[in-house]
Backbone:
């Protein structure tokens, strides 16, 4: 049975207010073609379908159009789980309707492991694969908050809760193992030792609850993870992987190769695993360094292998403030305006110990590149310059997380 593992589409994502629709459409077209060419039978999507809980109609259309097209291919089953960016109710709203097309949606966690255990059968009705489709586990899924607990206790509770959730499948999957039916698990979490980009939201406050490869039951023949946007193995375990996002979601991912994994299961085992590179239609590019170097890099930038204009982030290193810096950069960018659009212009780094007030003010002005937490920290620093803010910031992060969680419905 041939399976394709992908995650973190983040449909509807914007980068500095620019839509990614064309890039997502390009990816989804490629994915549909790949499913056909590779004769994929099962598609696993491990969370963060949408970038936010209330996706735009454009994002919803991308999603449903893709599902409709894939239903007309050789792909017999699609399993979609919710990520920390997804709204459980948005994903689950069409659950019963999609079930009619063999599209299984698990938007949020259930206390009963059988609700997340999906049996996939061949056209002839023969059982071929079992999938433990675990979505992102919210704090309330792993155990209710305990008032007054310390940060360490909380971390331990979340870790144990996640490990227990996977462990709960073990008694239910023995029958598959006995019949040589492969068992795959899905998950949307931050595994210990993983390498993050800048575009993942903190999953639990301070990225707590990281579990290692050894905490996944050994009965799983493959673990298809989502959340980290860079493709990677967990603790060098060949069969526990993040597929990463299909498009770079931030400038910190400019050097990453974007991939999907194709898995072949034979005789109840993972027999083969291949990585397919996703073609890129828009390059994100970072120019950073001394002014001459940056100007030279821009002048030499070649966008001929990409169909869309590149988006750039730029930061110049200077020895002293340069009054006509912006003018110099504008001139050089003008020569490349068809190929390159400047999205983020970070304030120059002045290579000396003290900065003038003016430079500090300029740095504060770029609100769109700061997170909520950065803004809060800056406010603390200006109001109470001599205090330690770590506890206040931790409390603020906890509040942010509570705000992002949906009310129970
Ligand atoms: Mn994500």
Residues:
């Amino acid at each position: 049975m041939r399976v394709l593992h992908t995650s973190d589409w983040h449909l509807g994502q914007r980068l500095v207010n620019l839509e990614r629709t064309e890039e997502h459409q390009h990816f989804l077209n490629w994915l549909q073609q790949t499913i056909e060419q590779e004769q994929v039978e099962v598609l696993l999507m491990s969370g963060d379908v949408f970038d936010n809980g209330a996706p735009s109609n454009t994002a919803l259309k991308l999603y449903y159009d893709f599902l409709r097209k894939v239903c007309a291919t050789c792909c017999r089953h699609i399993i979609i789980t919710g990520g920390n960016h997804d709204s459980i109710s948005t994903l689950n709203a069409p659950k019963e309707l999609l079930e009619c097309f063999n599209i299984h949606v698990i938007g949020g966690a259930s206390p009963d492991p059988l609700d997340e255990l999906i049996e996939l059968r061949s056209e002839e009705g023969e059982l071929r694969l079992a999938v433990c489709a675990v979505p992102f586990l919210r704090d309330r899924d792993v155990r209710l908050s305990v008032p007054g607990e310390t940060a360490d206790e909380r971390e331990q509770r979340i870790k144990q809760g996640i490990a227990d959730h996977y462990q709960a499948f073990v008694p239910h999957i023995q029958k598959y193992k006995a019949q040589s039916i492969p068992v795959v698990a899905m998950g949307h979490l931050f595994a210990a030792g993983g390498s993050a980009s800048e575009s993942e939201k903190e999953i639990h406050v301070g990225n707590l609850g990281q579990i290692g490869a050894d905490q996944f039951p050994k009965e799983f023949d493959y673990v298809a993870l989502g959340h980290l946007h860079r493709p990677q193995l967990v603790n060098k375990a060949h069969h526990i992987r993040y597929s990463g996002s299909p498009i770079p979601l931030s400038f910190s991912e400019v050097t990453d190769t974007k991939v999907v994994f194709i898995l072949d299961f034979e005789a109840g085992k993972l027999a083969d695993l291949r990585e397919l590179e996703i073609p890129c239609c828009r390059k994100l590019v970072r120019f950073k360094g001394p002014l001459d170097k940056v100007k030279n890099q821009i002048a030499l930038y070649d966008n001929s292998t990409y169909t869309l204009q590149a988006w750039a982030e730029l930061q110049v290193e200077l020895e002293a403030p340069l009054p006509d810096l912006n003018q110099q950069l504008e001139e050089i960018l003008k020569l490349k305006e068809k190929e390159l659009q400047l999205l983020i212009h970070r304030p120059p780094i002045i290579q000396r110990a003290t900065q003038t007030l003016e430079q500090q003010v300029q740095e504060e002005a770029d609100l769109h590149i700061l997170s909520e937490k950065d803004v809060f920290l800056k406010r603390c620093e200006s109001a109470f310059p001599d205090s330690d803010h770590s506890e206040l910031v931790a409390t603020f992060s906890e509040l942010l997380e509570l705000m992002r969680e949906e009310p129970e419905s």
Observations:
- The longest helix spans residues 21-37.
- The pocket of manganese (II) ion is lined by residues 8, 10, 48, 83, 85, 200, 227, 229 (CB under 6 Å).
